């Protein structure tokens, strides 16, 4: 790993170590950042868990992959039914010592601290931030959510003290604006159903503690044009440099994009199905890789889609419906409602996993019914596709508020998912004047996204070199 300088001197390249928690929505941006840092002249090692391990053969050949061999994960970390907070806590515990050991042996093998410029660590993995910091390695926290969501998260202890996060929140409070986090209302704040504000606060305290003690900068998969005030506020609040290097999936001018990491092989037959559809006629429905719904909501979604009369492509992944029954196993998708397939015939296409970015770029797609995961939202924005939003947990409520009210590129399915309302919302967004206006605004955001340059990435590389 040596570099030839213009004066002929050979010098060791500086190495960056990256580590992501093994969620689809964290791994993909991390691997893209890894490829971009490599293209920027840095040597890159990706430390990873055995669970959902990236396949080195499918990624950039010049990246080095090293497993940390985390301690065996309890059911809480892998069960599709468990909440996101339980997963985060279990993963932090399972990764703490193995990450530290893996990084320590890397420091020994690669010639010591001089070679490793910094560790870019998942901003939800306080255990890894702390371990790297304690080993004397400069740490950058990689956030795979928005700047608005990070501000909301860091404000949780203050919000709890002010009575905004204590569940159950009184109905009349839900539409109150949250001071300092406008345009968010109380109902838009980060929450995880089934866990109390105390648990959430102690997780946030661990993240904020690690950031405060060990982190030299924050890297976000967002861009200035879309979150300028939120980024400015975040920089003030953290007193740290914050690099808005997104949208990461768009920035491959110097390096080939790494292959997408997914829990299932994408079903590419949906692209041929889309080819046969008129432009902007199809609704794409996917709630990402983690969100689950109960059987009742699943049936309302299905019959709402059927009742709308609109052609649709729907990702129904194994585990998407909670309590689907042991006989379904992990790998079988949940059964569709009786009579549904006969009703929709060829008007609907159902897949276990879609090549989502290609789907969103397809001209047949008119609207994306999304849970507002940050990656899905950015992918939709970058293709100028308006959204129908059904946020499920964590930062998805925050993003949904920005999509519908701040950027004006989407509308809500409704607080209650009910077939009649679903059908109405789908028809409205696909055909109505509101839909056309959202599409126009989405086109504008798409242009701003494509103008996002690689200058923030250059700034990040320079900062890393200076550490
Ligand atoms: N995705 C995909 N195919 C699917 C569903 C999702 O490739 O059928 C990808 C999608 O493009 C996005 C990621 O999975 O990059 C989901 O990340 P997001 O942050 O939107 O949601 P999460 O899964 O973390 O809740």
Automatic annotation (TrEMBL):
The keyword Ubl conjugation does not apply. Keywords: Transferase. GO terms for molecular function: UDP-glucosyltransferase activity. Pfam families: UDPGT. InterPro entries: UDP_glucos_trans. The keyword Nuclease does not apply. Signal peptide: none annotated. Belongs to the UDP-glycosyltransferase family. This is Uncharacterized protein.
């Amino acid at each position: 790993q040596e570099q030839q300088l213009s004066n002929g001197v050979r010098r060791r390249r500086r190495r960056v170590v990256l580590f992501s928690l093994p969620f689809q929505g964290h791994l993909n941006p991390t691997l893209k950042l890894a490829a971009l840092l490599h293209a920027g002249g840095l040597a890159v090692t990706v430390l990873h868990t055995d669970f959902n391990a990236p396949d080195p053969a499918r990624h950039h050949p010049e990246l080095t992959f090293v497993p940390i061999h985390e301690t065996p994960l309890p059911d809480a970390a892998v069960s599709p039914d468990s909440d996101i907070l339980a997963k985060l806590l279990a993963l932090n515990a399972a990764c703490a010592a193995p990450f530290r050991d893996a990084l320590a042996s890397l420091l020994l093998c690669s010639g010591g601290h001089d070679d490793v410029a910094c560790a870019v660590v998942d901003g939800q993995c306080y255990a890894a931030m702390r371990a790297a910091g304690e080993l004397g390695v400069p740490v950058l926290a990689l956030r795979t959510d928005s700047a608005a969501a990070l501000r909301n998260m860091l404000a949780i202890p203050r919000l709890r003290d002010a009575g905004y996060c204590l569940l159950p929140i009184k109905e009349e409070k839900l539409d109150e604006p949250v001071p300092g986090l406008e345009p968010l209302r109380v109902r838009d704040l980060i929450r995880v159903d089934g866990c109390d504000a105390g648990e959430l606060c102690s997780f946030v305290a661990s993240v904020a503690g690690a950031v405060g003690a060990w982190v030299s900068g924050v890297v976000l998969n967002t861009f200035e044009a879309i979150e300028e005030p939120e980024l400015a506020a975040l920089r003030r609040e953290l007193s740290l440099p914050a690099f808005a290097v997104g949208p990461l999936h768009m920035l491959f001018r110097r390096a080939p994009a790494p292959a997408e990491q997914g829990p299932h092989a994408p079903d590419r037959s949906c692209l041929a199905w889309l080819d046969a559809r008129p432009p902007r006629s199809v609704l794409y429905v996917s709630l990402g890789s983690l969100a689950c719904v109960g059987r009742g909501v699943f049936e309302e979604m299905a019959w709402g889609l059927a009742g709308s009369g609109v052609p649709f492509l729907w990702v129904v992944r194994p585990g998407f419906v909670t309590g689907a029954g042991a006989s379904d196993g992990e790998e079988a998708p949940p059964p569709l409602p009786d009579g549904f397939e006969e009703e929709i015939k060829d008007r609907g296409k159902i897949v276990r996993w879609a090549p989502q970015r290609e789907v969103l770029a397809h001209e047949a797609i008119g609207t994306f019914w999304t849970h507002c995961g940050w990656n899905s939202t950015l992918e939709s924005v970058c293709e100028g596709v308006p959204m129908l939003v059904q946020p499920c947990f964590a930062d998805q409520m925050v993003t949904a508020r920005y999509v519908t009210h701040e950027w004006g590129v989407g509308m809500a399915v409704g607080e209650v998912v009910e077939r009649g309302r679903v059908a109405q919302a789908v028809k409205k967004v696909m055909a109505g004047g509101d839909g056309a206006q959202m599409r126009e605004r989405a086109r504008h955001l798409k242009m701003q996204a494509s103008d996002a340059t690689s200058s923030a990435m250059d700034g990040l590389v320079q900062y890393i070199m200076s550490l």
